[in-house]
Amino acid sequence: DTGVSQDPRHKITKRGQNVTFRCDPISEHNRLYWYRQTLGQGPEFLTYFQNEAQLEKSRLLSDRFSAERPKGSFSTLEIQRTEQGDSAMYLCASHLNTGELFFGEGSRLTVL
Amino acid sequence: AQSVSQHNHHVILSEAASLELGCNYSYGGTVNLFWYVQYPGQHLQLLLKYFSGDPLVKGIKGFEAEFIKSKFSFNLRKPSVQWSDTAEYFCAVAKAAGNKLTFGGGTRVLVKP
Fold first, then answer.
1. A6 vs B28, more confident
2. Which whole-number Å values give the CA distances from B10 to B6, B73, B105, in the listed order?
3. Would you give the DSSP letter of residue B32?
4. % of chain B surpassing 70 pLDDT
5. Chain A partners of B45 at a C-beta cutoff of 8 Å?
6. In degrees rounded to 5, what are phi and psi of residue B59?
7. Least crowded by CB within 10 Å, which of A61, A66, B19, B36?
8. Is B70 left (phi over 0), alpha (psi -120 to 50) or beta?
9. CA distance B4 to B43
């Protein structure tokens, strides 16, 4: 148990549908990161939050993607009008200014 | 932008063999360096990290890594692997403590019993 939990673990959806993923970080961790990982690749940075503030967004995060962390605790990542290219594992990680990221088990998205 | 290169995509070796995985990064400033491991069906876990001090870093499960600043490298080693070391290994770099990690593409290691 890493302490970072993600939900759902798997999501299969049809192209054009919206999906939302939730991440609950380790409770005292103030930074929360979202990454995307496709088969055979390392995790790619999407965005991160310091408490409730979204401090950086990758160019990978198109307008169809939005992330929130409204109360500085859990976070959601929404993908609108999904495309087949969005199929990937979406990883959440958190840390407390130690530099080390603690990862969740990921949410696997399959877009048909 | 910083980048991280892992030279080998796949490594196959027998138990008790020695393992060395290469990692090079492109950023010229002060960096923090990490190796993460992902066992089959599991989440990413930290093996070891380097922030400063002794460039030879020891991690969990008998792994170690050496930071060579002049070569922009942070290679991972284990003198004698076990079947349970079968996993994917990722090198990662951050510009400073707390900043986002940039990952390499990973090296898939298969240890034959």
1. A6
2. 10, 19, 11
3. E
4. 97
5. 2, 103
6. -120, -160
7. A66
8. alpha
9. 21
